[in-house]
Design goal:
Layout: H1 7-25, H2 34-63, H3 66-95, H4 97-109, H5 117-129, H6 145-150, H7 185-230
Helix pairs in contact: 1-2, 1-7, 2-3, 2-7, 3-7, 4-7
Length: 231
């Protein structure tokens, strides 16, 4: 007898979604707070826990063990509360993206091409993948140490990458045609919000499926209890 829709499937879904989003966030570690990294990590941990608890529930159903089925329902209920918390937190974080992202991006630009290799790599990846330059626009690089030293922008801003293609952009207007002039903030903001929305939606959606599992478990536990009492 099945206790519920396979919990292992729910666990695998959470693990996969959490891992994909966490890997995506790893590109923007210098722009986002640790709260955004912890959410997918918690979702992965919950997925692993559901996977393990799922086998426990299946064993209880197959052996028709009342105690195991009740324990499974309780554990699934606790997991549901955690998932609901992750889902709600994700939507709260989504509304707060703009408040910190722009400021963090401006601050990190000052550390480009310094001893912080992570910032250098992050900006190059973001500007290349999103075809953008700077936070608001390419002129943001004017007020940075890197922009002043080369009188231009990073080569990752260029439409077609070549060495020193962004050098002397502020001095030679003809070179402006070679770079992406729009900023990265608007594009990155939408990308992060989309990921957070998916994360929250999956957490709450899988949680609702788990409620069905809890209901099935309670019904089975009640049925087994009646059998024991009859015997």
């Amino acid at each position: 007898m099945l206790v519920s829709p396979p919990p292992q499937l729910s666990g695998c879904t959470l693990i996969i979604v959490g891992a994909v989003i966490e890997a995506h966030y790893s590109l923007y570690l210098d722009f986002i707070s640790h709260s955004y990294i912890s959410a997918p990590s918690i979702l992965i941990a919950v997925g692993v826990l559901i996977f393990v608890v799922g086998f426990f529930g299946c064993c209880g159903a197959i052996k028709e063990n009342h105690c195991m089925v009740v324990t499974f329902a309780v554990l699934l209920g606790m997991i549901f509360v955690v998932q609901l918390g992750v889902g709600i937190t994700s939507y709260i974080l989504s509304s707060d993206v703009e408040n910190f992202l722009e400021d963090n991006m401006f601050k990190s630009m000052r550390n480009y091409n310094t001893s912080r290799a992570g910032v250098y790599r992050t900006w190059n990846v973001v500007q290349h993948e999103h075809a953008c330059c700077g936070t608001k626009n390419y002129e943001d690089w004017k007020s940075t140490y890197y922009g002043e030293s080369v009188n231009g922008v990073p080569d990752a801003c260029c439409k077609e990458f070549t060495t020193d293609c962004g050098r002397n952009v502020f001095q030679d207007d003809t070179k402006l045609e070679q770079i992406n002039q729009g900023g990265c903030f608007d594009k990155l903001k939408g990308d992060i919000k989309d990921n957070i929305t998916v994360l929250g939606g999956v957490a709450i959606g899988i949680g609702c499926v788990q409620l069905i599992g809890i209901a099935f478990s309670c019904c089975l536990a009640k049925s087994l209890k009646r059998q024991y009492e009859t015997v």
